[in-house]
Amino acid sequence: MKTYIKSLAHRDRTEASDRHLAFYLTFIAGAANAGGFMAVHQYTSHMSGIVSSLADNLVLGELELLLSGFTGFVFFLFGAGVSAILINWGRRRNLRSIYALPLALEAALLVAFSLSGFLGPIDRDLALMIIALLCFVMGLQNAIITKLSGARIRTTHVTGLVTDTGIELGKLFYWNGRQIAPPDGPPPVRADMPKLWLLSRMVFLFFLGGVTGAISFQHIGISAAIFLAIPVAVLAIFPLLEDYNARGMKQ
């Protein structure tokens, strides 16, 4: 079990470790997104919606909503940038924990989110802080999977997942009929079944995470975020310890 968990965020990767890490983080993203909505009535993973709301609220003169959307946009961007910095920093130092570093930061921020529930009723300033924190987490996490998969997989970008699923479904149900056979004609249209299965599971896991998060935050409150922080921390701990022990041996 330890070997399996360590492999999920380790520098040395396989296609299976990429896929399994994406599954776990997609579930976490769905749960955190639902938690953000339960806390501040705003989704934090949906940049298309946030950017659209920026335009609408600018035209309508809704300055408070405009500030909320702009905060989310900036911190999602900031989170993705910090993730890239941490990964590239670790890669240039040949660390085993290049992907564990941003995961550890994500776990710490989810702990901070859980503790924000003890700060009292959520007023405008606290709501902005929560939006900033969760959008940063979403950008951070999405960039991790984007970097390690070569932009093949996203964990918070469900629009892209559903689009790719639709493309593969279109290929699956395409009737090739009579056509010029290769090499003179194009090859028959065939769906990428492993990719379709992967995408379908990720969309379902985001949905399942959302349901789980909504139920947890509804019954427990914001402190339920600690149950999201723990598994993320577990994913990060073994590669970090491996680098720490390797450094100690050199000294």
From TrEMBL:
Taxonomic source organism: Allorhizobium terrae
Signal sequence, renumbered to the chain: none
Positions of transmembrane segments: 21-43, 63-87, 99-120, 126-145, 196-215, 221-241
UniProt keywords, alphabetically: Membrane, Transmembrane, Transmembrane helix
The keyword Ubl conjugation is annotated on this UniProt entry: no
Protein name: DUF1275 domain-containing protein
InterPro entries noted in UniProt: DUF1275
